[in-house]
Amino acid sequence: MKVQVPLTKGLLADKYNQYASPDNIIDDKPIVSFPIQITDVPKEAKSLALTLIDWDAIPVGGFAWIHWTAANISPDVTEIPANNSQTLKVPMVQGRNSTAGGLIGNQDPKTAWHYNGPNPPDKVHNYHLSVFALDSKLPLENGFWLNELQDVMRSHILATAEFIIPSRN
Question: Which of 107, 95, 25, 92 has its CA nearest to residue 67?
């Protein structure tokens, strides 16, 4: 399985990060998700899931930052279009990002349970997009936490693809 995100000069396009236009930012957070191409999904897959995590946030804040989690994406999907987190042209169940945790306390499902775009404070960060092909649909509802996704995926992962997305500060 392969996953790819279009980059501009080796970086995530500004319209998907902190440099997005003001109408695509809510509470200082970019909300328009980038397009994702998915190929070579195993034929036996019943669903896909994704995570977008900033491991480079650990030295800055003490923990990895969860930007987006989603599950129960059809295995026939070859492209998740831009802004799908908000429009759901490709159906998916979305989990909470790090703004929903106790540190920030965001309770607004429109921003806490959707894509939360990159906003690296110190340098270019590498955002890890992982897509998982699974042998079943997952018993998750909107607003799940990353640990819940990891727990229910365990022993159901057929293949994993990762794409590193650099985003400027």
Answer: 95
Q: What secondary structure letter does DSSP report for 154?
A: T
Q: How far apart are CA 145 and CA 98, in angstroms?
A: 9
pLDDT tens per residue, range 71-125: 999 999 999 999 999 999 999 999 999 999 888 899 998 899 999 999 999 999 9
Q: Which residues contact 36 (CB under 8 A, 6 or more apart)?
A: 3, 4, 5, 50, 79, 80, 129, 131
**Two structure tokens written together for 33:** 């998700």
Residue 159's beta-bridge partner residues? 133
Distance of alpha carbon 75 from its chain centroid, rounded? 17
Q: Which tokens go with 55?
A: 């491991």
Residue with tokens 């989990």: 95
Q: Which of 70, 66, 80, 48 is nearest to 128 (CA)?
A: 66
Please name the helix (run of DSSP H) or strand (run of DSSP E) that holds residue 61, with its range, or none.
helix 58-61
